[in-house]
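Entry 14. Structure prediction run on the chain below.
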Amino acid sequence: MKISIHFLTLFILLSTSSQAQTNELWGVPKVKNYLPHMTVPEVEDLLTRTDMVIIPVGAIEQHGYHLPLGTDFLNGVERCKLLAQKRDVLVAPVLMAGQSPYHMGFAGSITLSAETILKVHLEAVESLIRHGFKRFMILNAHGGNRAISTLLVDQINQTTAGIAVDMGVAVRPFSEPIKVDLPEVFDRHGGVWETSNSQYLIPDLVQMDKAVTAELSLPEHMEKMIPKVVDGDPTALLVFLAEGLKAEETGKKTSSKEMSTTGVWGVRDLTLASEQLGKLQVDNFVQAGAKFIDRWNKLRPLGTDK
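Output returned:
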């Protein structure tokens, strides 16, 4: 009996020791069709059902005091993962960082050149094409990458065997208008809409107790444009964004550090953000994305070029 108790005690101690050696920080569930979580056989199996890939193009940059620097990258990836649970597509994030020179006044922000971002994504796409993927949906998850994402789509189509579309353009015909009652004020980077998205998509990383509504100081001529921008004047918005949020080195006086006390580019009360508002936006994207994928599959079924 004493020997049995001894062995039982030893077994418990060894089990406890084994558990203690497991990474206590790990808590990520395996997600279907998410490339970093997949094995080779799982990718091979997916290729029997689809040749579609969605690539989020994000950023690592400041988002005020309440949102993480990885907001754009993380939110983009999470939206893609949710879509991949509705339709069989591969989610393949390639880079965390993007083009963010105008946020470099805030610690932790990272910026890459357009050439680097384009080259890395093209090489990743070429790799996936070698394995049998053919169709690529580029999801721009950061406003500063818009031109790069557009060029990436073009270069995939012009220089590789792949076929690419801009996901923002692709889902537009299938999206539903979102009507909410919010004050009509200037609200862009790190503001209520982006905060709401984050509250829904990455809730554990949002610190609303640290949210501070920014005080803005724009060049005088841009300040005068804001009412027209808020009203939706397309020309005012076009010229406003052509000059606004540009690197300090350009001399435009419109980097986020020069214009905002917190890095948020907007003055709407951040306490108006909610996970409900975020869910509205994300659900709209997922249902629109699923409808686009269904339409593309009808127009060009898997294996059409074989």
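The radius of gyration is 23 Å.
Filed with the rest of this week's runs.
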